[in-house]
Structure formats: C-alpha cells, structure tokens
Amino acid sequence: MTEAKTHIAVVNDDTVFLQLMDELLRQDEGYEVSTCFVGSNGYKFVRDSQPDLVILDLVFGSPDDGWRTLDLLTLDPRTRRIPVIVCSAATQLLHEHEDWLRQFDVEVLPKPFDLDVLLQKVRTALAEPREAVSASREPSI
User: Fold this and answer.
1) What is the pTM of this model?
2) One CATH from 3.80.10.10, 3.30.1490.20, 3.40.50.2300, 3.90.1150.10 for 7-126
C-alpha cells in the first residue's frame, strides 16, 4: 500500500504562476498539486478537494475576490483547519491586514519571492497543526 502524497492547492489568476507552482511542487518536491485558475470558484475548489495546504493569490477579478475567498476558507468548518499561504504582490494590502492574517494563522509570502523561502513556508505550514479558528469574527473585507 502506497502512502498518500501531501496535497497542495494553488489558486491564482496567472497561468504562468500556476504552471511554475505545479512544476516546483509536483515535479521537484513530489507533492500532489491541484491548480485553480480563479475564473472558477476558488473557495469551492478548495472545499471540494480538501487539500493539506492552500497557496492563494489575493488580487484577482474584483479587488475583494481574494479576500472574500480567504474569508470563506477561514469561516467554513470544512476548510478552517487547512493552512493558507497568501502569495500576493499587493504588499500594501498585506501590510494593512497583517493583524487579521496573523490572527487566523495565514502565512504571507509577498511577490516576488525566493523559491527557497516558498518551500520553507510550505514545509513549516504542513508541519504545524492548525488550531481551530473561531467563526465568530468580523470578515476582513
């Protein structure tokens, strides 16, 4: 019987980024990778696939789409325990929401980033058990 691979979901609106993450995480690191071009519903994608980790862009579609997706992921008991790494070039937004992101154990990786830093954040997120997050809170958007 073979051991199940760790499953990482990547949600982004950049097909080149999705391809890079698939190559790096699947081919180089051996993870199972699912990618979601955000034209589809990122939250539903994560909820249905139940990955071990999500790498999520915050700025796609309308300015609030990524934040809305992140809110849904942290509110839903089915996805709340899945660790999230926010990977975004919107550094000002990341800074403005730093306390909220920290409160809900959301790891941040500003673009551009070093691939070794990404891999370290992935390993750390997968190694640390995620606490249950209280659903009684104000949404971030």
Assistant:
1) 0.86
2) 3.40.50.2300
